[in-house]
Amino acid sequence: MRMRALLSAGRKLAADSIQDCPPLFYVVDTGCRRRASSLKYRYHYTGIRVRNLRKSLDFYTKVVGMKVVKKGTMPHGGVWVQLRGKGSDQTLELNWYPKGSKFYSEYAPGEELDHLAFVVKDVKKAHKELTSKGGKSAISPSESEGTEVYVKDPDGIWIELLQSN
User: Fold this and answer.
1) 17, 22, 124, 161: least surrounded by Cβ within 10 Å?
2) Running DSSP on this structure, what letter comes out for residue 78?
3) Is 160 a catalytic residue?
4) Coil, helix or strand for 39?
């Protein structure tokens, strides 16, 4: 009985604290109400920074059992490798940046999350929408080299915008 009362009180408290949040940038648990975006954003992958690409690649392929699905180099000299686990549609992207790259930084604990990637129909419109509604431009379409268009969310997490085909 006491548990029911606590749950009921918690639901009322959560409902009383619902507030509006900028579109796209919301978390249900924070009590923000969802507002529809005029563009569709399809979550594509998560990228993490790695200090030693070979060591990380060995760990994720030999220990975790993931398979390499794509790999390549970046215009500034970095290297990326996308991995997928059996039975999953999501990919993990390992990103290694050389010193001197605009993305390189000395590593500190907690900085391994590199970025989240979303596929959109129009990168320029998505960049404009996100920056007008709470995001901050990290690399605008006019500054990008290839596909490198990024916006930072309100917490500073980088979001890559990829053009759909």
Assistant:
1) 17
2) -
3) yes
4) coil
> Could you give the CA distance from residue 97 to residue 10 in angstroms, rounded to a whole number?
46
Indicate which residue of 93, 129, 148, 160 is catalytic. Answer: 160
Mean pLDDT over residues 25-32, rounded? 39
Cβ atoms < 10 Å from Cβ of 150: 21
Report the number of secondary-structure helices (H) and strands (E) in the chain.
Answer: 3, 10
The tens digit of pLDDT for each residue in 68-121 reads 999 999 988 899 999 998 888 889 999 999 998 888 888 777 788 889 999 889
50 and 117 inside one domain: yes
Domain containing residue 5: 1-36
Q: Please, are residues 121 and 128 in contact by the beta-carbon 8 Å criterion?
A: no
* Pair 52, 158: CB distance under 8 Å: no
Instruction: Based on the fold, state whether residues 4 and 76 are members of the same structural domain.
Output: no
List beta partners, residue 121. Answer: none
